[in-house]
TrEMBL record, chains A, B:
Its EC number is 2.3.1.35, 2.3.1.1. The active site is at 190 (nucleophile). This is Arginine biosynthesis bifunctional protein ArgJ. The lineage of its organism: Bacteria, Pseudomonadati, Fibrobacterota, Fibrobacteria, Fibrobacterales. Keywords: Acyltransferase, Amino-acid biosynthesis, Arginine biosynthesis, Autocatalytic cleavage, Cytoplasm, Multifunctional enzyme, Transferase. It comes from Fibrobacter succinogenes (strain ATCC 19169 / S85).
């Protein structure tokens, strides 16, 4: 049995402290450096962008994690992505890690680095170097929000969640924070996510972590682009004194469900906060041949400009959903397909349902909601999956077009 | 040596006649039925949408062409796509073909059918049946524009081109017309293209035709969606009295180049006419590992909302181009990559070039043009390819969001 913690975040699990400061990297004067620290070296799972163009901190972290699967801290800056900065950029990322290790008296390769912001600019290392001791000094246990705010770029809202699981062996906690898509020229949407837990996790839990990423951070789409800096790091420090292996099977299932909840809640926050987004739509594919195909089709529809514009226009445009599904490359048979907006069935066996006045009114009530679900039932298998997308609004174009160099 | 024909189109090659009329399918009262006829049965090459959801006329034509690779005429209607209409829709498509065959006294399966417009509505067969005899009666040799206009939906401009090739054996002509993306709810972008030539082509020229499609109609993107009705049909009636095999190798090369010109000109017209488009951008990928990878990367960048919004904003945003290329799944090495807007180099070896005042002014002059080229040089191979895209403007969102049911 688990419960959501009000105002919870990365510091909710035992043994995690954090801090956030204004180091002057952002012209706005908002907080732009953050530090997350575990009292004990924590088992570390990390997944990085698949973009062929990888930022320096991504390259550094991947190398660091090849040696050990543990980390004690993560140093983060916003305002500069340290991407397309060549060898100097890599040296700067490494220096951020080393300075943090020294300030925290940690062993080499025990600190990871994340950056987000403008690309193609060298890091203002003077500001970074001045910031690190301040971050270390300010570390405290109630800093979930401080940390969560300092990692944001043009995000409008804090994205922080935590869940507590009561087990036979005692209480286990999962916390998390993330930042989503912000576009300040010449910046790109970057997703940084940090998950913490005081449960001790075995190395092979990584497969579970990856599966959760597929259904959370990889199941959302604002505009289909993948950035140079995308990173998701999970730290499990075991300071609850409880091991995953020692939980009963049902408790293990609850922990996994709670982890999914935290990661999906963070992921949905990113979509809600997408540029110009006015709606959050869950695209649900049911009775598909496989979970992978269902997820791929859901994500494909979630990137269709036609479908996203119709969502903005509050138009229950089944034609665009069906056509996008058909062009996703995933298996489907039009004549077997049913489609629902909320609970209203608009397509049956690939043919439009003739709606009466009452049903038509219900349909329009659905698409006028800020959040609703579109369900496409393929009737060719047993698998299902969901993706989460936002609408495509004037606001999106404005934010992404207006800034001119 | 070939020359572009002013006001040329599908009727420019010998032995082709056409017509277009208002049958009352469109509420607007614009022309909505068209007929293209060859005096002699013509070798027919056809490529259809890969969408899993295929409109009735697409299913009918595919079946018809399985029996023979010849066709004598194509009957087209705009205003109703005859998609998601089930068995009745298929019977209606077949009836359109049969009635046209009877009216033209042609053998069965010698007429193809194309439809574009609203989906999910049964065809108004009374209007279709009344229209066919009128189309037959009005067939004439100077009807390229009439035909070209009658196939349009919300396209703003006629898309018609023709080229004449002088050979040792005599004159050979290629003509073409197409319609592009129009979105009237619940319609989707549908591409219909018709190519005619009076050169006799061998059956194995199909491979050449497919390759041309890849570099023309499949190299453009307005919003990345594929419709239920997309069709490209080429008719070669041999009425110039000249066979492809009888041309010299250089003349064969000229014919292929002329065909590419006609098809690319039509394809670019579609992009120029994309919803809300204010710019036509050629995305050129050079020194890639293969033509396929280069084309795939170019098309991928062409569907990036971030890149397309930046184009609308006249912002030379190299970060979005590079990041999109990196997330295309195609092979590249950031550190080897150079990027140009027009002739201005903005990236060298994956690092931003420091531009002086004069270069910066030149860069902004490039992105302010209505049409320009962005060239990404990967420096990992010898292959290259281009894709053509338009910008993502307020107009696009307006057109696709405003209509609400």
């Amino acid at each position: 049995m688990y419960t959501v913690l009000e105002k919870g975040g990365v510091c909710s699990p035992k043994g995690f402290t954090a801090s956030g400061i204004c180091a002057g990297i952002k012209a706005s004067g908002n907080a732009d450096m953050a530090l997350l620290k575990s009292e004990k070296a924590a088992r570390c799972f990390a997944v990085f962008t698949t973009n062929k163009v990888k930022a320096a901190p991504v390259l550094y972290d991947k190398a660091a994690l090849e040696h050990a699967h543990f980390a004690s801290a993560v140093i983060v800056n916003s305002g500069n992505a340290n991407a397309c900065t060549g060898e100097k950029g890599y040296a700067d990322a490494e220096r951020m890690a080393v300075l943090t290790e020294e300030a925290l008296k940690l062993t080499p390769k025990s600190v990871l680095v994340c950056s987000t912001g403008v690309i193609g600019h060298l890091m203002p290392m003077d500001k970074i170097e001045a910031g690190i001791p301040k971050l270390v000094e300010k570390l405290h246990e109630d800093a979930s929000e401080e940390f969560g705010r300092a990692i944001l770029t043009t995000d409008l809202a804090l994205k922080s969640h935590a869940v507590e699981i009561k087990t036979e062996k005692g209480v286990v906690t999962i916390g998390g924070a993330c930042k989503g898509s912000g576009m300040i020229h010449p910046n790109m949407a970057t997703m940084l996510a940090f998950i913490t837990t005081d449960l001790a996790l075995p190395i092979d839990f990584f497969a579970e972590f990856r599966a959760n990423i597929a259904d959370s951070f990889n199941a959302i789409t604002v505009d289909g682009d993948t950035s140079t800096n995308d990173t998701c790091i999970m730290l499990a420090n075991g300071m609850s004194g409880i091991k995953y292996e020692d939980l009963s099977l049902s408790e293990q299932g609850e922990f996994r469900a709670a982890l999914t909840l935290v990661m999906q809640s963070l992921a949905k926050d990113i979509v809600r906060d997408g540029e110009g987004a006015t709606k959050l739509i869950e695209l649900r594919i049911e009775k598909a041949e496989s979970h992978e195909e269902a997820l791929r089709m859901a994500r494909f529809i979630g990137t269709s400009n036609l479908a996203k514009c119709a969502m903005f226009g509050e138009d229950p445009n089944w034609g665009r959903i069906l056509s996008s599904a058909g062009s996703s490359g995933c298996n489907m048979v039009a004549e077997h397909t049913d489609l629902y907006f909320g609970e209203v069935k608009v397509l049956e066996g690939g043919r439009p349902v003739q709606l009466d006045e009452k049903q038509t009114a219900a349909l329009h009530a659905v698409v006028r909601q800020r959040e609703y679900k579109v369900t496409l039932v393929l009737n060719i298998g047993q698998a299902s999956a969901s993706a989460f997308t936002c609408d495509l609004s004037y606001g999106y174009v404005k934010i992404n077009a207006e800034y001119t160099t």
